[in-house]
Amino acid sequence: MTLLAYCVTKTSAVVDAPLTGVGGSPIQNVEHGDLRCFVSPSTEDSPLPASQVRDAALAFHRVIDRIFDQTAIIPFRFPTLLPRETELIAYLAEHLVEYRAALTRLRDMVQMEIGLQFKGSTSNRGIAESSGVLGAEAKPSGTAYLQKIRARHEKLEVAAKELRQACLSFTKEWRQRDSSEGIRCFALVERGSVGRFQTELRTVGIEPDLDARLSGPWPASQFLKEE
Amino acid sequence: MQDSDKTLIEIAQASAPQSGIAPMQRIDCSPENIEQGLARLVLSLVELLRQVLERQAIRRMEGGSLAENQVEKMGEALMVLEAKIHELAASFGLTPADLNIDLGPLGHLLDK
Lengths: 227, 112
What we know:
The structure holds two protein chains of two kinds.
Chain A: E1 3-10, E2 28-32, E3 35-41, H1 50-68, E4 74-82, H2 85-94, H3 96-105, E5 109-118, H4 125-130, H5 142-166, E6 171-178, E7 182-190, H6 194-202, E8 210-218
Antiparallel strand pairs in A: 1-3, 1-4, 2-3, 5-7, 5-8, 6-7
Chain B: E1 2-3, H1 8-14, H2 34-63, H3 68-91
């Protein structure tokens, strides 16, 4: 029977899981060692039609959210389907040590995310336009194009540094990486400090041409592995 | 600083970026959409390479290992390539956001 996997917790965690998940299917547990995986049976063996994806994603998220409210979890991406329970057991066995360590280390932690990018642009197209290549009205400058990209990235880096400084006292760990749209910053925060973290970040002023979006709390997926 | 207004679908997907086994995201290769599906696949890979080359070009520019005319040529080539990718994507009815394929357990081809 195909299983839709939601998330992994430790068996020692006391969790009041929802009774049903995606498509109204019953939520079940599969355990291996001290890991517990929440799953529900699925009849889907092909991609969902677009019209049903939204409802399924919402139902999936509700399950994840409810469990995450109670304990640390390692979530699966939606939709992760396994043809048989034995495959799930094998997966849990393969990751037993890693997941056990992560769930112990992150048990009182959540992840906050800040997406930093320039307003109104998801690519360098604006840079190309201002460099003249698209309009073909002025001679395009390749050097100016690269310099502008570099300057933009430096501006994002400065903003990320300011945000990090602002919430330093509430952050256990900070990770960031470049993305196609800007920079993604991830802060590891104690559950009890989320409110103060949010309050502190809202006081940070950023350049008017930048957009900073705070989201969370999320499961601490970016911190599963220690650096 | 503002709170995210992501849709709940984005939230559900963002909540699970690390683990996973085999989700079911596929390029649409139905007869009526085969051209767009293949164009999306090919252009996504070209865009990935363009971004890698762009970062490498900036690193080399910062490192001072390129002559001025080399920087100019490289920048111009990358700029034209980006414009061309967008132009081709538009001709297949694709937006820049479409050139970021969901690779299932690995996340998206280009980090969002």
